[in-house]
Amino acid sequence: MPQAHPVFAQAGETIFETMSLLARANGAVNLGQGFPDHGEPEALLRLAAETIVTGSNQYPPMRGLPELRRAVAAHAARFQNVTLDPDTEVLVTSGATEALADTLLAYLSPGDEIVLFEPLYDAYVPIARRAGATTRIVRLEPPHWRLDAASLDAVLSDKTRVILFNNPMNPTGKLWSADEIDLIASRAKARDLLVVADEVYEHLVFNDARFETVLAHPDLRRRAVRIGSAGKSFSLTGWKVGYAQADAAILEPIVRCHQFMTFTTPPNLQHAVAAGLQLDDAFFGELTTRMQKKRDMFSAGLRRLGFEPLPAQGAYFVCARFDQLRKDLSDLEFCRWITTEARVAAIPVSAFYDARPRTDLIRFCVCKKDEVLDEALTRLTRFV
Ligand code: PMP
User: Is 0.90 topped by the overall pTM?
Assistant: First the structure.
């Protein structure tokens, strides 16, 4: 039997796939996997479809269509007051995941260390380990998931090369405070580290809170990579159009990795996303308002049922404690139980930790039509 690399040979199926299969088998409302079931601007769908027929279907430029790179830069200037050179400081990738992989492969060597924060998006750890790095993980604690200096300092060493954080954060909905970003910046500056910010939920920030990209931080503009995704900003997760933005010298090795990884991304989708990024402020504002309403409506419903939803300042998830309902079950058991019995699927928060510790939290994805969320609450009410 040919030997595969242990990182992938030993990786199991992701919990998202497992719960989606279980949801399908039980006819459950799937609030597990994080994908929207609505909200695509129809004009973008039509533009992508028309461009397949009217535009080129050959390899577009390796860094991305110039019009999309210009749109990414203009979007960063409009919403974040950050000036980027579209020719040298923007790279289009096949989803944020490719941008993350390109960045980690470009910057990590065997023996290096990367600092991550739990709970975390499940792709970070295997990519970092496949790049040969050791992961040093800071565990943030509910309900506020705050980072303090002592916990960060405890994982930094002479081998640290990269600090990666997700803002707003999946699954917790945490929006990183200016103080926390200052803390990361001060350590990155002192130790000459690269900071990678996964900012795919940049437009999902609630209650008029202010999101600031890492590139707006004076000490991070020349040592950080900002990663975005059209999948999240336009509710088009299947398109897998992402972008990395960084100082030209920082971006260059990432571009080289992308060159050999995928080289490019479908041109019709890039063309449509370029148009999407130029939509007016009202489009992005409406997305935020709509998601905030869903978060509030679903959290209130959960509270009535005896769950304890945690505060979320961003992203489209609600994490809720379930121990008032069942103390005897682990989060995974609880998710299986409600998927098969109440026919509503969620994700155990333990899946967002490297060591899969038992937690008393489950994550519901709320970027679904109101009637889908209502149906989920009705089923849970009948059941509880
Ligand atoms: N980062 C985070 C935090 C995510 O939640 C996701 C999608 N679930 C991604 C990256 C992946 O984005 P994409 O589909 O553009 O690769």
Answer: yes
